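Q: what sequence does this backbone want?
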């Protein structure tokens, strides 16, 4: 009797699991209730810039597959130009003259050039030592990531006091909460 009930439960769970793999023609993108081929998505259509005719068609560059069109809208670039900047600097990897003061100010207390690789290696080592238990991953909202790293997080006002003792200016802390 128990074996038959187990077979029934397993077969029903397999049917449910396999039926979840099928695509439903009633649901569109993001689960909204409409047919998939009901028409274009009005939010996917972007207006383009005004077309500009070149003075000489012979000087136009060769088309490149996947390249941007001059009539395409590039919001970040357009915002930079609207605010008086140069959109060419968005793609530049060099630190220009205006940013050198910012970099110098941010790195005045020392810089580790390989900080990302170091932190990634330390985090991987910590994760390997403190793996979440099976029930942590299945029954809790977080996978134990934050609860395992609670002792590694900064206490904000203790860090504020430490930075102020070093002479670092911290003007963004509200006066009533500062210690």
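A:
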């Amino acid at each position: 009797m128990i074996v038959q009930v187990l077979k029934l439960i397993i077969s029903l769970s397999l049917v449910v699991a396999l039926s979840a793999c099928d695509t439903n023609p009633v649901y569109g993108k993001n689960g909204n209730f409409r047919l998939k081929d009901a028409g274009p998505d009005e939010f996917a259509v972007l207006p383009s810039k005004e077309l500009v005719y070149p003075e000489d068609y012979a000087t136009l560059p060769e088309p490149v597959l996947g390249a941007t069109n001059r009539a395409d809208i590039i919001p970040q670039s357009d915002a930079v130009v609207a605010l008086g900047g140069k959109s060419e600097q968005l793609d530049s990897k060099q630190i220009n003259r205006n940013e050198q003061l910012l970099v110098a100010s941010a790195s005045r207390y020392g810089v580790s050039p390989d900080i990302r690789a170091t932190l990634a290696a330390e985090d991987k080592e910590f994760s390997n030592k403190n793996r979440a238990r099976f029930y942590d991953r299945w029954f809790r909202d977080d996978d134990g990531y934050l609860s395992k790293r609670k002792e590694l997080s900064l206490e904000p006002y203790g860090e504020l006091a430490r930075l102020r003792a070093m002479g670092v200016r911290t003007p963004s802390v509200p006066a009533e909460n500062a210690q």
